[in-house]
Design a protein that fits this description.
Blueprint lengths: L1 E8 L2 E5 L6 H12 L3 E3 H9 L3 H24 L6 E3 L8 H10 E7 L2 H7 L14 H16 L4 E4 L5 H14 L3 E8 L3
Parallel strand pairs: 2-4, 2-5, 3-4, 5-6
Antiparallel strand pairs: 1-7
Amino acid sequence: MKQNQNYLLSHTVALIGLMGAGKTTLGRYFARSLSVDFIDSDDEIVKRAGISIPDIFELSGEEKFRDIEQRVIADILQGSPVILSTGGGAFISPKTREILGNKSVTIWLRAEPETLLSRMDNLHSRPLLAKGDPLLTLTNLSDERKRYYEQADVIIDTDNLSATQALRELVSALQERDVLRLENTVQKEL
């Protein structure tokens, strides 16, 4: 007999936090290591709307964008467990926060504004950073959103962590909550 070990994910893991926190990088890495799907809610919004997020903001405003975002996240959470990267502002909406709280395990990837800015490449593609001082904007967003992000199920400080180190912390936190379990399967050798 041969013994194989597989991890089972019992709930969707929703990564929250400001832009640049590592939601997409860590999410893809984690999903690949578990052989589960990775979904970026911003990518799904663009697919559904047929236009870019900056265009949605410009043409319809942030309120309309948040409404679309809420519906997309609710739809994603109807399916099998995945690793979900949410937009930086998704968790500030009470309804979206409630949906995520009921249907997923929320993980706040926390980092200082200076760290966040150092991780970003395309500032022009981020509507909230397109005007003014990006560091000041990130600092203000961090201050405004902290009280919402603190409601996450798990908080991981990513400032001084590599993706591998952050993944280890994430795995440990999910195992403690019995969201990520090791399944032993026994197969007969032919």
